[in-house]
Each structure stands twice: as C-alpha cells, then as structure tokens.
Amino acid sequence: LRALETGEFERLGGTKPIKVDVRIIAATNKDLEKEVKRGRFRADLYHRLKVITIQMPPLRERLEDIPLLVESFIEELSRKNGKKVEGITGAALKALMRYEWPGNVRELKNCIESALVVTEGDKITLDDLPDHVLNSIGGRFPKIPSAPSVQHDPLNLTHPRIQVGMSMEEVEREIIRATLAYTGNNKTLAARILNIGKKTIFRKIKKYGIKMDEIEGL
Predict the structure, then answer these.
(1) In the chain, what is the straight-line distance between the N-terminal and C-terminal CA atoms, in Å?
(2) Using N-to-C axis directions, what is the helix angle for 104-118 and 90-98, rounded to 10°?
(3) Tens digit of pLDDT per residue, the chain (218 long)?
(4) Phi first, then psi: what are they for 124, rounded to 5°?
(5) Where would I find the H helices in 99-196?
(6) Could you tell me if 175 and 160 are in contact, meaning their C-beta atoms sit under 8 angstroms apart?
(7) Distance CA 175, CA 181 (A)
C-alpha cells in the first residue's frame, strides 16, 4: 500500500526507502465493489488501484472481434505447431460466432489450437472444431437422412462393394468409404451415422488410406 501511495518501498531488512516510478495495471473478472462490501477485498487497496477503470465486455458481446482474433491465432499457432494452415472456412467461422465463449479469448485461442492440430488441410473446417463447441450451438448437423431404398439408390450406397472372402478390415473400409460418399464427405455426419467418434473416423480414414477421389468417383 505504501508503494502505491507514495511511490516508495524498502527492501526486506533494509532501512533506506527506494523510489519507484511505475504504473500498476490490474485485471479481474470479479465485481470488486461487491467484493469489498462482502469483506473479500481490502477497501484501501481497491481505492488505491481504482484510478482509471476500463470495462472489457465478454467476447460474446463483441463478436466482430472474432474473425480478427482467429486470423491472429492461426498465424501464431501455425508457427508454434509447425503447421501450414492459412485460414478458416466460412462455415467454421460462423460456428465460432454462434458460440457463447464462457472462457472468453483464452477459450477461443485453445479452440483454434485444437482445430489447427487435427486439421488435415490448409484451412480449419467445421469438422476440425472441438465437439463441445459444435454441440453447444445446436442445429449444426444436417438431419441424418434415412437409408435410401434399393429402388432409389443409384449410387448403391446401401450395398457397399462387400464380397464373401473379404477381411473384416476390408469390410470396415468399404462401409466407411460408402458412408462418406453418402454424406458428401462430411466426416462429422458420417461418424454420427456410424456411431463412432470424430477422432475415430479420422484415424480410420488415415489407416485405410481412403482418398477424396475414390469418394467423389462413386
């Protein structure tokens, strides 16, 4: 308190006052006036710190900042993680702007780092965003269509190319390939249809070497 009041302090065990010329910048997510009234924060310290007060609204109240923050985080975290990610798709950015961000900017940064680590392309997509973000905004998944009938299944997706004698891994690969084709390569939706996790389907796509061209060629 003395240092704040007079700009002087003494070293522990010292007797000579030392002058300092500093400015104190303090931040909190608490309502300090209420904390003082409740006896949880010293009133004398509060009034010495309270010279200029800047109220910073939560991220959910300044959505226009999200695109700039995302761009900055992608640039910073790409260098940190050794990835060549150049941006984010429009759908993924819209999803971020629909989320409420209870953890504010720190949570947004962690979200971008998580997506950047798992993405396989040069842009962060909707599939790359953490599940808790996507699940909380609601309505992000298209309605899962019922399996088409044989008569109305020109791509024959309800009957993948499975033959007697194929190994279980070959069968699994074919089912995943057909489901990806059925969903237009929407990996998140395909994972839901197959009742497996998003990370699992990414791992199996890599394991079985399923390529975009063989899906698009169906």
Answers:
(1) 74
(2) 150
(3) 777 788 888 888 888 888 888 888 888 888 899 999 999 999 999 988 888 888 888 898 998 999 999 999 999 999 999 999 999 988 889 889 999 999 999 999 999 999 999 998 899 988 889 988 888 876 444 444 444 443 444 444 444 566 777 788 888 888 888 888 877 788 888 888 888 888 888 889 989 888 876 665 45
(4) -75, 130
(5) 104-118, 131-137, 168-182, 187-194
(6) yes
(7) 10
* β-bridge pairing 87-88 and 123-124: parallel
**Which distant-in-sequence residues (6+ apart) come within 8 Å of 206 by Cβ?**
none
Residues 6+ apart with CB under 8 A from 103: 110
Domains, the chain, ranges and CATH? 2-49 (no CATH), 59-137 (1.10.8.60), 142-218 (1.10.10.60)
